[in-house]
Inverse folding.
């Protein structure tokens, strides 16, 4: 009788460990998504033109050639 009780407690322990890992993964994913969305809203700067821009430091470099 004690063997069956031990097996049940082991099974329950394994179920609880699996449940804890699953809940931890969901919480970690939710936290990351919330941080990413707040970072996007904070960094709303006007977008600059893409591509080549000749700036003063580039002109200085060309002058050294």
């Amino acid at each position: 009788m004690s063997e069956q009780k031990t097996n049940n407690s082991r099974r329950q322990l394994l179920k609880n460990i699996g449940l804890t890992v699953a809940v931890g993964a969901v919480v970690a994913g939710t936290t990351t998504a919330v941080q990413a969305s707040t970072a996007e809203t904070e960094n709303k700067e006007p977008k600059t033109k893409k591509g080549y821009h000749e700036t003063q430091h580039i002109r200085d470099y060309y002058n050294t050639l």
Summary: Residues 14 and 20 are 10 Å apart (CA to CA). The chain has two helices and no strands. The longest helix spans residues 2-42. The mean pLDDT is 76.
